[in-house]
Prior knowledge:
Elements: H1 5-40, H2 50-53, E1 56-62, E2 65-71, H3 75-82, E3 87-89, E4 97-100, E5 106-109, E6 112-114, H4 122-147
Antiparallel strand pairs: 1-2, 3-6, 4-5
Helix pairs in contact: 1-4
Amino acid sequence: MGFNLVALKEQHAAILAKSERAIMEVLDESIDVVNAGIYERPGFKPVTHKTQDATKARVVKTSKGRILRVTNNTKRGLWLEEGTQPHWIFPHKKKVLRFKSRSGNWVSTKVVKHPGTKPYWFIRGAVSRASMLAIARIESKLARIARDRH
């Protein structure tokens, strides 16, 4: 009893091609999940959405396969993602800083000691949700491919 090696190679190539297509579909869906996450659940109150608009998600081909890369090259994006340490704030264009205090009174001062900010992890959270969904979707699609005999 023998087997057809040519047919086996063809079936193997077909399974690999279907698997590659399935993974690319899931990665493309993950881009949408990340983009939705950074707008729908940023963790902070966006005013202009410029920080979310500057966040880019794309599929990148590497030597080991494809990955979903999410970047935001703005200073504000880094501060929101990782938080800030306590720091001093000085006026840049004027001689004093002028702002409303929590009590509603106007304050003028030459320097402010900012306590720092907590990290919001808006990118990390969106990527985490997308990756959990992607793993489940890839497992489901690959299981379906394995069950199919065609």
